[in-house]
Amino acid sequence: MTPRRLLLAAPALLLLPPAARASQEEMEAAMRAFTGGVTPRPGRVSMEISPLVENGNTVPLSVLVDSPMSETDRVRAIAVFNQRNPQPHVITMRFGPRAGRAVLATHIRLATSQTLLAVAAMADGSYWSDSAQVVVTLAACVEG
Amino acid sequence: MARVLLNIPARAYPGDILVIRTLIQHVMETGYRPDADGVVAPRDILRRFTCTYDGEVVMEADFSPAIAANPYLTFTLTATRTGTITLRWQGDNGFDQTETRELVVV
Predict the structure, then answer these.
(1) Which residues contact B16 (CB under 8 A, 6 or more apart)?
(2) Do A99 and B33 touch (CB under 8 A)?
């Protein structure tokens, strides 16, 4: 392609789909890999994230699960998934017997506006979830 | 050694639930990002964080590239008796760093 042709084709190149990006199906597949095929019920989990994010490079995220964290009734793990980053998985946190509360807070990257899903695995084998919609104005530079 | 910022109480009463905040200096290169020459920079992230106290795992976390640079993590532990809190980060390119703090339970 001559430089002139390339220049003319530039707008079309911008319309090409991004190289790597997770989808709703991939997010659900990653979630099922975490739950062992069980579909989590909504509730008991509360995910806190700003609904409007100005900078996707560091987005504060916290997940709190309603659980007494006793010997028998406790949260085994929390996992967070995303819909449209290159990879659907964000973080998995497994709790041992010394954990005080089922809470996690961290900073994450968001490639674009999307839905996030937090899933909690309970010791009794049940799974609970919460989802959040996030609008991102400046995307994380995960794809340049 | 990467720089680490830790916020861990030094003293506690038995049964107290302590909030632990950790931050470690790390680029968390995603492996998807081209540099100025258009060459995709290879992935360099932390994969695993583990906290142990009183001989047992408090919690362990698996990170993906979606964790922001300089990973920040907050969690809680229940104070039982005087002991060492060990925090360990492991990642790509053989990254392995361990920090310890003494917790006095009165």
Answers:
(1) B78, B79
(2) no
